[in-house]
């Protein structure tokens, strides 16, 4: 019996790790932009100076949280939300499949004019 258990564990450890990426659901307020890390909490958003809000949440491609310092020197395509004062609150570093999901609004004006389906995570222009 112990040999079977040991063999099972050995096979588990030897098996290649398979990680399925669960589709992420973005809120309708999430906009798409290019984020360049400067010196936290300062960043460039679409080439313009921006700031991360206190308590900003940054999620990488695996949906794991990243610390602000990991953004320094990187240029990333992201979805983001802002807090009331305009600082960046939620940031999702996009996967290739999410980048391919087009169109996605880059401005609040576009988001107000377009229609969003939260189930399919698709935007449509009128």
Walk me through this protein's architecture.
Helices cover 18% and strands 37% of the residues. By secondary structure, it is α+β, with helices and mostly antiparallel strands. It has a domain of 75 residues: Beta Barrel (OB fold (Dihydrolipoamide Acetyltransferase, E2P)), CATH 2.40.50. Strands 1-2-3-6-5 form a 5-stranded mixed beta barrel. Strands 7-8 form a two-stranded antiparallel ribbon.
- Assembly annotation: single chain
CATH class category label of the domain at 26-100: Mainly Beta
Query: How does CATH name the architecture of the domain at 26-100?
Result: Beta Barrel
CATH topology of the domain at 26-100: OB fold (Dihydrolipoamide Acetyltransferase, E2P)
- The outline comes out as globular
| Number of E-type strands | 8
- Biggest sheet strand order reads 1-2-3-6-5
The percent range for helix content is 10-25%
Give the percentage of residues in beta strands: 35-45%
Element string (H = helix, E = strand): HEEEEEEHHEE
Instruction: Please state the average pLDDT score.
Output: 88
Termini Cα gap? 65 Å
Compute the gyration radius: what is it? 19 Å
User: What's the total helix number?
Assistant: 3
Major beta sheet, specifics? 5 strands, mixed, barrel
User: Which regions have little confidence, pLDDT < 50, spanning 5+ residues?
Assistant: 7-12
């Amino acid at each position: 019996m112990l040999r079977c258990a040991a063999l099972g564990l050995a096979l588990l450890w030897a098996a290649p790790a398979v990680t399925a990426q669960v589709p992420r659901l973005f809120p309708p307020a999430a906009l798409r932009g290019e984020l360049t890390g400067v010196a936290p909490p300062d960043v460039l958003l679409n080439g313009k100076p921006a700031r991360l809000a206190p308590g900003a949440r940054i999620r990488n491609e695996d949906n794991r949280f990243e610390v602000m310092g990991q953004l320094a020197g990187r240029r990333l395509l992201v979805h983001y939300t802002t807090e009331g004062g305009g600082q960046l609150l939620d940031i999702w570093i996009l996967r290739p499949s999410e980048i391919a999901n087009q169109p996605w609004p880059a401005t609040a004006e576009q988001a107000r004019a377009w229609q969003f389906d939260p189930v399919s995570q698709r935007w449509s222009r009128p």
